[in-house]
Design brief:
6-stranded mixed β-sheet, 11 strands, 215 residues, globular
């Protein structure tokens, strides 16, 4: 059966485009999003879980000098050294977590480390992002994505909300996302480098929408 270019995996799409177009993404992150609300249905923040793919986890181990016996299991001392390793953010970095309500962005505070663990050779970290100002949780939209799509986030670890609220996950429209990649890459100069890769990450993002009873 012949498939259209929109139905192909992204790597296959990129293979059909000019050779100058770099392949994306490079890092794959299974994501969990837990909206934290109070008894009045006000959103206080979101707890974010990132589970890095096997290869990227291995690179972190090597960079930090961990898991010297290569068994994918860290000692208590190594785990302690790993805590908060991914929360040293450069100024202006949004944390790849975006919240909106009625189309307006909601400002998040600095990340608060929760816990980092390792299982089956993969690093899983959790942190909390408080809202600068609590808002009604009803109608809030949460997305996890890297604008440059260097890292691919998928809400495969699930999404949840506090008592009285629910979190519904909607997958991206991949046909539309692949078409956007095709259009933008074809419009790029042939000698464009990695730094010129179009910001298409949002097009590939799962969308989490909060609803609350009685709202």
């Amino acid at each position: 059966m012949i498939r259209s270019i929109q139905s192909l995996p992204l790597a296959a799409v990129l293979a059909l485009l000019p050779a100058a177009a770099p392949a994306h993404p490079h890092v794959f992150i299974a994501t969990g999003l837990a909206a934290v609300t109070d008894d009045a249905g006000m959103l206080l923040g979101v707890e974010v879980t990132w589970e890095y793919d096997d290869y990227y986890s291995l690179l972190i181990f090597e960079d930090m000098g961990l898991d010297a016996d290569f068994d994918g299991v860290l000692t208590a001392e190594e785990l302690a050294a790993l805590q908060g390793f991914d929360l040293q953010w450069d100024a202006g970095f949004e944390g790849d977590t975006y919240l909106t309500r009625d189309g307006a962005p909601l400002r998040l505070g600095a990340p608060e480390a929760r816990q980092t663990t390792v299982a089956e050779g993969r690093i899983r970290s959790r942190h909390f992002r408080p809202l600068a100002e609590p808002v009604a949780a009803e109608g809030v939209v949460i997305q996890a994505y890297d604008p440059t799509y260097y890292s691919a986030y998928t809400v495969s670890l699930g999404a949840s909300a506090g008592p009285g609220c629910a979190a519904e996950v909607t997958p991206p429209d991949l046909d539309r996302a692949y078409s956007l990649v095709e259009e933008l890459l074809y419009a790029m100069p042939a000698d464009a480098g990695e730094e010129a890769y179009p910001e298409v990450g949002a097009a590939f993002a799962d969308t989490v929408r909060l609803t609350c009873a009685g709202s």
